[in-house]
Amino acid sequence: MGSELIFRGHETQPTPDAYSPKPPKPWLAVIRPIHYVLREQRLVFVLVGIAIATLVFSLLPAHHGNNHYPISVSSDSRILSESTQLTHSGFVSGFGSFHPGGKVPLGLKRKGLRIVVTGGAGFVGSHLVDRLIARGDSVIVVDNFFTGRKENVMHHFGNPKFELIRHDVVEPLLLEVDQIYHLACPASPVHYKFNPVKTIISNVVGTLNMLGLAKRVGARFLLTSTSEVYGDPLQHPQVETYWGNVNPIGVRSCYDEGKRTAETLTMDYHRGAGVEVRIARIFNTYGPRMCIDDGRVVSNFVAQALRKEPLTVYGDGKQTRSFQYVSDLVEGLMRLMEGEHVGPFNLGNPGEFTMLELAQVVQETIDPNAKIEFRANTEDDPHKRKPDITKAKDLLGWEPKVSLRKGLPLMVSDFRQRIFGDHKADGASTITSSSV
Ligand SMILES: NC(=O)c1ccc[n+]([C@@H]2O[C@H](COP(=O)([O-])OP(=O)(O)OC[C@H]3O[C@@H](n4cnc5c(N)ncnc54)[C@H](O)[C@@H]3O)[C@@H](O)[C@H]2O)c1
């Protein structure tokens, strides 16, 4: 009864006797699934295609000797291998973890190193950038232009291997790089005394940020520390094992103690987080592109002699300094970065000059009639400074090559051009100096 209510067309349906089934087609059993796969399973084919391509890419380079690279040259594959380690363990084991012979996908050319130079628009930084670019590396300069100048790096504008970022290192920054040369810091007394709190913050927070970056991307980190960490030294010449004699509350402490803290942070990141670090303790350096009126003794004397002003000597002029030409320093920094030793290393010229002797060399080079004027010495001015560079000689195979009498004329022609040439504004201000 119920079925009749639901289906009422049975009277008109053909009787079972009238039904004749179609003859079976056996090939349909094969063709139908293929049709179905072709229609509905395109994704499977895409995946199979990717698998075949991956196989081809990973097998082919193994037969090409050209795609193996020596350990001394970094490639992007190293960045990959190191960032992988970072993800897995939270730490990086640095350069030692790079496996030579890593394959670079076909069609990608091996590049030079990618290097950040903080403070790269400054005096030392810009010379370092010149050398790194000449070596074929890609360089990113990070600078807030407090004492640096665009003119120092302008000749690289337009070079695809050069980038310039206006940035203060007290703010964090993320860049994928192989090496970090950390120079950013006001370096002369005039500049660091201008804003002492900012100086110590740059040294502490700036260094912390750059070490954090090094840890995150597995980069090697080099700190440019200073001979000022020895303070007014009770040991002469200064060896790296000497802990120094520093006034923690003086007018120079923002710089001296700032650099000492930066060294501490650097070593703690090395010991605690496995970051590859290098520490250079730089002694007085001079050369082209130094700030003209920065209160450092060589730039003071040269600028004064060129302007026909008396050379101001502070105290009795018997305090000593050693003067290193900038190209020697840059060579030392690069050897330190590429070498296997953490440091600290003294980088300076052991040739020792009193301030009066330096004034004489400046007179001989620029103006024999230049007068010398004595003034009261500045607070905490160290009496003696001379690096012991035995460690750098032994472990880095480094020693300075350029004597003061050879290097000074190169600096003089740069200063002459900037004072009397297109940078006349620089020539107006008064010089306050110490024998730094
Ligand atoms: N030249 C030397 O005799 C000497 C000696 C000892 C140590 N050092 C060290 O070497 C490094 C370079 O010194 P330099 O002589 O070239 O000095 P510099 O003043 O010419 O260069 C320092 C650079 O750092 C930049 N800078 C400063 N604070 C910054 C910040 N917070 N963020 C970003 N950039 C910042 C400046 O604009 C400048 O370009 C410094 O760390 C200095 O302490 C130099």
Automatic annotation (TrEMBL):
GO terms for cellular component: Golgi cisterna membrane. Its cofactor is NAD(+). Residues 1-22 are annotated as: Disordered. Residues 117-409 form the NAD(P)-binding domain. Coiled coil: none annotated. Gene3D superfamilies: NAD(P)-binding Rossmann-like Domain. Keywords: Decarboxylase, Golgi apparatus, Lyase, Membrane, NAD, Transmembrane, Transmembrane helix. Pathway: Nucleotide-sugar biosynthesis; UDP-alpha-D-xylose biosynthesis; UDP-alpha-D-xylose from UDP-alpha-D-glucuronate: step 1/1. One of its GO terms (biological process) is D-xylose metabolic process. This is UDP-glucuronate decarboxylase. It comes from Actinidia chinensis var. chinensis (Chinese soft-hair kiwi).
